[in-house]
Amino acid sequence: MIECVTGSSTAVLDPPATTPPGVGWASGPLAEVQAASREISRQTALRYRAIAAFAATRPASADRAPGEPGTMSAERWAARADVLRPVSEWATQELVIALDVTSQRAEDELERALLLDQRLPLVLDALEAGVLHPGHLWCLLEHVAPIGDDALRTRIQAELLDWMGARHRVTTPAQLGDRVRRVVARHNARDAARHLTDAIRRRGVTARPDRCEGMSVVSALLTTPEAAALVAALGAYADALPADGRSRGQTMADCLLDLVLRPSETDLPPVQVVLSVIAPLGALLGGDQPCEIDGQVVPAETVRALLAALTGHPLVTTTAPAYDDATEDATTDAAATDEDAAGSIPDGAVLTEDEHFARWAEDLERRILAGEFDDRPAPCFPDEPLPDPGARDPGASPGPDSSPPPHPAGPPDGWWARADRAIEDAGDAVLAAQQALGRAHRLVATAARADAADETAWAHSAAGRVTAAPDALTALGAVTDEARQALADLLATTGGGGLADRPRLVLTDALTGALLGLTDLPELRRIGTCGRPACRRRPEHCDHDLTGRPGLRPPAESPGYRPGAALDRHVRARDRRCRFPGCRRRVPRTGELDHAVAWPAGPTSAANLTGYCTGHHRGKHQAPGWRHTLAPNGTLTVTTPSGLTASTEPPPY
User: Would residue 283 count as lying in a domain?
Assistant: First the structure.
């Protein structure tokens, strides 16, 4: 029995499952592995039972009824699993906070727990007993749980578990999945069409970031014929294009983009795509600081190329020249010559083992090329079998110490000659290998010096100085006037053409990354003068006292319920993503800015506004027993009906 102390109470856990594996118990550490896996299965079953019990305490009757203002959309309701409809939609958000998972993962866990508890009780018992492990569940949940006939579903569960119990051998999830499909097809073929209909309702397109920064994966859930037709059509488009060095997959991806984003040869109306691009000042000046496109991290060069393509204002950068092959070869030859000419270790130098070996190989090569080994006598051995050391020569005088001469004269192409040539060939091969290895060491050393020189040159270039700059002012001072002018041209670009809005400047706290102000070039010019008409026309000549000017600060509060344009931009730039704990959805471009203290009791100001996604905005107003508290510094604290608390801060820049 295991005791687990939680707070002031002690929870008693049941003893671990003792059902032996089908192949028996191992000995030693592997037996501990098997026992731990059995305990994981048992705890997984207990976890699902607890989630199902929690769901029973959150009935959907506490939510607004379908059709009432502010409820879940009809499309979202129709796409929700049948087993989830009796449960409050806000139970998922409570699981997010309790389990540190995404909303989709929490809903999946809730659905899985209810399916196991209500529709697959035999499977849940087998999981707790250790007959199944969590990897076995997917095929049972996908193919057995949807069966509507309770008696048939129970009979199929029993048949599958009996099959596993009678095997007494290894049963992988793939093997069980194949068996499940066969059994379900035999007993429940008439429901296949209904399952396909349900799957068709789940079709859609999603995007997720790839493991490589700057890349994303777009997935489309389609019917099998549609997916095959789509891939075949893209392949046909790719095959119709002349070869240009791209792979077939790369060409298909480019064709997909052209057909969707640039349908110039169709009658479809054009669409506008809005991307939020966040780039540090150093990245726009040629540095390597990471940037964001719609919340995904991308390299700085990607953003510079995108902005240049959209605005027609290439950003001027200055980088160190890269080493090409000719430069590397010349450097290598020169370095080898210098090393050969030196031939000695400089005073005070400490060489590694590899360096000692390289110098030994170079010295051996130099001695061979100088002919130091060319005066070796040519061997001559007889063309006869190897003499027996115990036999006497018939023509020699007998004696106790008599023995055949070690190398009697004979033709030069005999057995000893061939052996000597083999030894010479082996020596030549070893020498050649040593020479190649020595040259390889020299090449590696030269490449390391070239790489270090390239890195040093880059660090002293404008791009390197910008990357190392501790603040924006230092970065601006590290570049050329041409680069600063290119940046000014970008900031002066107004909406229209490739840009949906004027580029903005985000002023942040250097230590915390918190947003301090959001401005643009016209506003900087406006607040940088005294405000007189003559100075507004020629701001570079304004030398008046600016003490009374407002300076850079968050926008003032708006008089009505809707935030003004400047305030709306500021709050969205500050929050960027939904502020609910664990949520990563972007704040929609219109709406969903919520008053922490309801208007008009609370002002329409940056300190009283929070950005949410649509679902969590509804939950803030509708979920019973929840509390959302916004602190003056922007920290949002959420308290669940279970007493859990979680806080979030605006994401730093």
Answer: no
